[in-house]
Amino acid sequence: MLLATFTSPSLISGNATTCPCSVSATALTNVSCYGGNNGSAIANPLNGTLPFTYVWTPNPPVGQGTDTISGLLAGTYTVSLTDANACVATATCVISQPSALNPQIVNIKCRHSSRIKIF
Fold it and tell me: Within a domain: residue 118?
């Protein structure tokens, strides 16, 4: 507990509580294909008092208000955790994705055939 004493006559002496809650955010699943939306993340409260309230930004497609969000595009996601004592902690995680494919067309010369199959 943190004791705060105010010396100004217009202020009142009192006690202020410190907020011991903290949170970490982790990418559970990165996006599997460039431009995909199958990433997910989880918030892990490290301390604080139950129950917890979770607010994610930007707003996720699935899981707002819970510890786990999904359906994510690549990007940065921030969770704000509030515990029963109104202590607030935030954490950020990054959902990544593979690089875009960069196909190249190569001129192929085939003897005795004008058909080419690409698999």
Answer: no
Q: Say what the pTM is.
A: 0.73
- Cα dist from 71 to 13, 42, 85, 93, whole Å: 49, 12, 31, 15
The C-alpha angle with vertex 94 and arms to 46 and 53, in degrees rounded to 5, equals 40
Domain annotation covers residue 52: yes
**Is 45 part of a structural domain of the chain?**
yes
| Tokens describing residue 97 | 């994705």
DSSP state letter for 50: S
Q: Does any domain span residue 44?
A: yes
Identity of the residue numbered 64: Q
How many domains does the structure of the chain reveal? 1
Reference 21, options 64, 92, 85; nearest CA is: 85
Question: Can you give the pLDDT at residue 13?
Answer: 47
Query: Mean pLDDT for each consecutive 10-residue tract of the chain (119 residues)?
Result: 39 53 93 97 94 96 96 97 95 96 78 64
